[in-house]
Amino acid sequence: MTILTKENLKEELRQRVRESYAVELEDASADELFFTLGSLVKAIYNDNWRETWKNYLKEEQKQSYYFSIEFLPGKMLKSNLLNLGLLDLVRDTLSDLDVDLDDLADVEKDMALGNGGLGRLASCFMDSIASSGLPGNGNGIRYDYGLFKQQFVDGHQVELPDEWLNNGNVWEIRRPSKAVNVHFAGDVYLKENENGQLKPVAENEIILRAVPYDTGMVGYQNGIVNTMRLWSVEIPASEEGKYKSIEERRVYEDLTAVLYPDDSNERGRMTRLIQEYFFVSAGVQSIVRYFQKLNKPWSALSEKVAIHINDTHPALCIPELMRILIDENDVTWEQAWDITVKVMSYTNHTILAEALEKWPVYLMKQIVPRMYQIIEEIDRRYVESMRGIHPEDLIQRTRIIQGDQVHMANLSIIGSHSTNGVAKLHSDLLKSVVLHDFYVIYPDRFNNKTNGIAQRRWSQLANEPLSNVLDESIGQTWRKDSSDLKLLMNYQNDEKVLEKLAQAKHQKKEELAEYIQETTGITVSPNAIFDVQIKRLHAYKRQLLNLMHILKLYFDLKDNPELDIHPRVFIFGAKAAPSYTYAKAIIKTINEVANMINNDASIQDKIKIVFLPNYNVSLAERIIPAADVSEQISLASKEASGTSNMKLMLNGAVTVATLDGANVEIRDAVGDENICIFGLTEEEVYAYYENHEYYSKQIYDENPVIRRVVDSFVDGTIPNIGYEGREIYDSLIRYNDEYFLLRDFDDYCRAQERIDTTYKDQALWRKISLVNIANAGRFSSDDTVRLYAEDIWQIEPIFAHTEKEGTSNV
Ligand code: OAK
């Protein structure tokens, strides 16, 4: 493509709209224009995509493959334009046509093939891997329906299907020529072949076709385009007649229809196991096929390929690679095992017991019989190899198959060379508590990689006013290298810059206030403190603690209407897993409290509550730039890292936090005086676990403020929450408050008072906000993936090769 100007961009769009839709540019609908622009953008980066791939092949670059059952990229138009260096040009061109780029970008449906943290991290990594010029690709599932759409009906969460593909997906390329077959079920037994080798023979298998859809992952102004490959199921023509019933067929043909909507909660469903093996087998087969093109011995596989297991859902990568090497390529078990361990690496994303994935032996035998046989052999050899080296009880606690369960984390650790946590505290807890037994056995395999965020999306794309202030004060280098945000520290006492930052925040608050008005009918003032908690609804994240503090404030205001607090808008965004009744009870209760307070004239708008429905990446992009306060209040030790904490900090919000996950590193980055820390520490939480001396009822009995708040869930104060209020009350009192809300309540209220006092001192607040922005650079996922590349995957950037040939994008 030639150099793009406004004129030839217009001409291109005009031609393409005519060709595709038989209309003139001026008459094109928003959908038509969006698809035309999207396909043009894709055409622009296609050359680079092909070149990138050819370079990897030519240079025989080692490549990493990030296997993740979730990817959550959100919308891609503006991000692609930014990365191609075309954002301003396209904005101007469209504006000549009386089209607003932001409105047009809104036409795109969010690609929401993930639940929350784990999926969003995978997408931040895809952006950063490409932007750092690293040869790394994604591998996952192309769900027909992404995460459900959330609506509130009478305050209850209602789930609707996310039909994101209804209008097609402009970014993907279907590649049937790269399809592979995946084999399930059947009877598998070992038989000696003519060479005297034992080989599996399978009968009555189910064979499915895995068809890849590739999406270009465009690097930031570096000419690199990597691939995110998502697999979709089809029934091969040869298998059509083999299904015993429509129900049986449906299980398989709907295999990639829906994403399981549980976050950090494993439910052991059959279809989920099939999904896991489906994308794992397809992905590993296609990687091996690529490697075979290089004509190298198998011993070189780990020099050319790194496979990353994003939490345990893709753990079958380990036995699948073993299967391909042993069954299909006659590699010996010993050599195959050596190769597999070198190729694989694993990230753990949670310490919650309910999230640790286990599969019943009977289900594995039924669904993936060959995988089970290989896992059994891995397990047998593991036990054998450890005998005499480690005590028997340690071996039994760490083996893969225990009783009638297959432990996927154990498989992931034993079958890989690296296990990492996602924040320092989390990685330490893995070593000292959760995976301590494995740390004793494999101390060298454990490491930490603190999460990061794709800073370009969360600053340049989401927050233009802030970006402009940064450009004017510290220049533009921060756009490429976020560590340069540090330069902002030189302006801590610069009234002009502080004022401009405050104006930028105000502008985003006005925009959000308008959106809140339009979507919920609630009027909020941009002069109020915007206090934000946005994340999945989960008991351990303690949205309920936030609500309890709001109720306390409400009662304080009822008792003393003149109470001098700065007006505050409490903003929530959260989806609950459809089967998680307790989380849904909290949503209903927040909505009812919101109704009660927002409509109580005596409160004089001093507090407002807004629960925005359908929290997703796009909504996050509206909320985060407008936030003054970031609520990161999980019970210490429970949140592996958190990433909204980093996004909010980057946008100048002040954090109220427990010392949990990456909050600890945020505290270290900004200093105690620029963050509001409260609550039990992880050590104190563990001390309670050990001495069993926590009695929530005692706190309730002794603390009248807490009693009033807790009673309000059941005494009729809050309307319409009979059942929900009872469930919440019982969790706090009858079941002894598993997440120590009552224990942390007073300290949390004190932290909130500090926020109020500090906000009233605007000079101080603005400075704290600046310090947060200035120190957010260290949480860039560019840095995180560089560390993965160096320490775990041993892959190198390809800039060296492309620079020679020029990196122009257009
Ligand atoms: C989801 C399913 C199973 C296990 C973990 C998850 C998950 O989303 N974990 C989250 O991962 C994020 C990215 O590492 C972390 O920031 C969150 O703290 C963690 O809960």
The CATH architecture term of the largest domain is 3-Layer(aba) Sandwich
Total number of distinct structural domains: 2
Give average pLDDT, whole number: 96
Structural class: alpha/beta
Strand content: 15-25%
Distinct bound molecules = N-(phenylcarbonyl)-beta-D-glucopyranosylamine
Shape: globular
Q: Give the total of beta strands.
A: 25
CATH H-tier superfamily of the largest domain: Glycogen Phosphorylase B
Low-pLDDT parts are: 800-810
CATH class of the largest domain: Alpha Beta
- What Rg, in angstroms, do the CA atoms define? 27 Å
What does this structure look like?
- The chain has about 800 residues and is of the alpha/beta class.
- It folds into two domains: about 60-75 and about 110-450 and about 785-805, Glycogen Phosphorylase B (Rossmann fold); about 455-775, Rossmann fold, CATH 3.40.50.
- The protein has 33 helices and 25 strands.
- The strands form six sheets. Strands 1, 4, 7, 8, 11, 12, 13, 14, 18 and 19 form a ten-stranded mixed sheet that branches. Strands 22-21-20-23-24-25 form a six-stranded parallel sheet, with helices on both faces.
- Helix 21 links the parallel strand 20 and strand 21.
- The model is unreliable at about 800-810 (pLDDT under 50).
- Bound molecules: N-(phenylcarbonyl)-beta-D-glucopyranosylamine.
- N-(phenylcarbonyl)-beta-D-glucopyranosylamine binds near residues 121 and 643.
- N-(phenylcarbonyl)-beta-D-glucopyranosylamine (OAK) binds near residues 264, 311, 642 and 643.
- It catalyses: [(1->4)-alpha-D-glucosyl](n) + phosphate = [(1->4)-alpha-D-glucosyl](n-1) + alpha-D-glucose 1-phosphate.
- It is an enzyme of class 2 (transferase).
